[in-house]
Design a protein that fits this description.
This protein is an alpha+beta fold. The protein has helices spanning 2-9, 18-38, 42-61, 67-86, 95-117, 125-129, 140-160, 163-180, 185-212, 222-230, 246-253, 255-270, 295-311, 329-339, 344-349, 374-390, and strands at residues 236-243, 277-282, 285-291, 313-315, 356-358, 361-367, 396-398. The longest helix is centred in the middle third of the chain and has 28 residues, at 185-212. The protein is elongated, with a radius of gyration of 29 Å.
């Protein structure tokens, strides 16, 4: 969006009048603040507030002898404020989350007001709206601050992949262009409106991300899976993947370690070959869709995936693993575990928490037919998964008896 606006601003096609641009700017600003309030996004709300205060300061300073000094100060303050907002923890629109940055903005605004009060006089906004001039030059030290802040915001986005982090980076870039164009009201207002739109859109993007992606594993969620089912055309294959003995593993080592297991398996599933797309559909259950593929075409890819998960290892973080409760059923439970192939869980529980642990999965696979619907294919894949569980786990089973891939149970699940 910013690149498109920059190209438009530097072309001869930019003919929109200043009142219309101002109207768009205030609509984007008010809409973004309402969305931030509705979705309890304190960081976006504060970013829009910073943008509004900066725009007001720049517009009042335009055309005055002190405009250069004001722009340099704003060019330093805005990146600092954005970095502080980026480092905030999202805790909703509460007094506790808004007070620190709000107090800082109040002090900054008071300082700017005192600076203006000591000047010869405050210009009229209407006069400045009609003033056209050359771009304002930003001092080198201010450019260094802006670039450093932009790099930090970009790194945060690349690490976290969150829409808000991306919006802070691009809106800061748009604000820098707006400050440079302070003496050109139409161009400046266009960049202010762009920055407000970017921040407002980030709330919508973040809502979409929460609705269609699993926050723990970053895989698409069940809602995305249901939407993908509506677009499938025959033939297609659906695989149901379940982590073996995950509940017992979770009870033994604790929920934090269970989350590590889910992230580990999800990372492997995200790289499934054969044109598959993985989804987390709840708990330890995952789905993989293979559009345009049959079981015979994808079963080897699933077998390779199963082997990669089985061979992967991770270390339990910390020494807070959960121990089994003492009681009359404890010995019987251990006897049952020892009698089953999953008894390695108990053996690992007796070891050091730093020991390397392995995870296994069971997979059920089904392929569509001309008369089948997605619900029946999912049920067939579930039945194949149950057969894989009953046959010893850590294996791939197909709904059709034509081909089954078996393997020896290994590791822990």
């Amino acid at each position: 969006m910013l690149l498109a606006v920059a190209a438009l601003a530097n072309s001869g096609w930019f003919t929109l009048a200043l009142p219309a641009l101002s109207f768009l700017y205030y609509c984007a600003l008010a809409g973004g603040m309402l969305l931030a309030w509705r979705f309890h996004s304190s960081r976006t709300f504060l970013s829009l507030l910073v943008l509004f205060l900066t725009q007001q300061a720049a517009s009042f300073a335009a055309g005055q002898p002190y405009v250069q000094t004001t722009i340099q100060a704003l060019a330093v303050l805005i990146p600092v404020n954005f970095i502080l907002i980026a480092l905030m923890h999202e805790r909703g629109l509460t007094a506790e989350s808004l007070a620190p940055i709000g107090l800082l903005l109040f002090v900054q605004s008071l300082t700017v007001a005192v600076f203006w009060g000591s000047s010869a006089g405050r210009p009229s906004p209407l006069v400045h709206a009609r003033h056209f001039g050359d771009p304002v030059s930003i001092a080198r030290y201010a450019i260094v601050v802006i670039v450093a802040a932009a790099i930090l915001l970009l790194v945060r986005f690349l690490l976290m992949r969150k829409p808000v982090e991306s919006a802070l980076f691009w809106s800061l870039s748009s604000i820098a262009l707006a400050l440079r164009s302070t003496e050109m009201p139409r161009t400046s207002t266009l960049y202010w409106a762009t920055a407000a739109c970017i921040l407002a859109i980030s709330i919508v993007e973040n809502s979409y991300l929460l609705a269609y992606h699993d926050e723990l594993t970053t895989l698409p969620s069940r809602r995305a899976f249901n939407d993908a089912l509506l677009r499938l055309k025959d033939p297609y294959s659906i695989a149901v993947v379940d982590i073996d003995h995950f509940k017992r593993f979770n009870d033994t080592y604790g929920h934090d370690t269970g989350d590590q297991v889910l992230r580990l398996v999800a990372a492997k599933l995200a790289r499934v070959t054969g044109g598959g797309q993985a989804y987390r559909c709840g708990g330890e259950e995952f789905m993989i869709l293979f559009p345009g593929k049959t079981s015979a075409e994808v079963v080897e890819h699933l077998e390779d995936l199963r082997k990669k998960i089985e061979s992967s290892e991770f270390h339990v973080r910390g020494n807070d693993r959960r121990q089994a409760h003492r009681g009359p059923d404890r010995r019987n439970e251990r006897s049952r575990v020892r009698a089953r192939r999953g008894h390695i869980i108990r053996q690992l529980a007796e070891g050091n928490s730093a020991d390397a642990l392995s995870v296994t999965v069971s997979v059920g696979l089904a392929t569509s037919h001309e008369s089948s619907d997605t619900e029946s294919v999912v049920k067939s894949a579930d039945k194949a998964l149950y057969r894989a569980k009953e046959a010893g786990r850590n294996r791939v089973e197909t709904a059709s008896p034509v081909r089954r891939v078996r393997s020896k149970t290994a590791g822990i699940a």
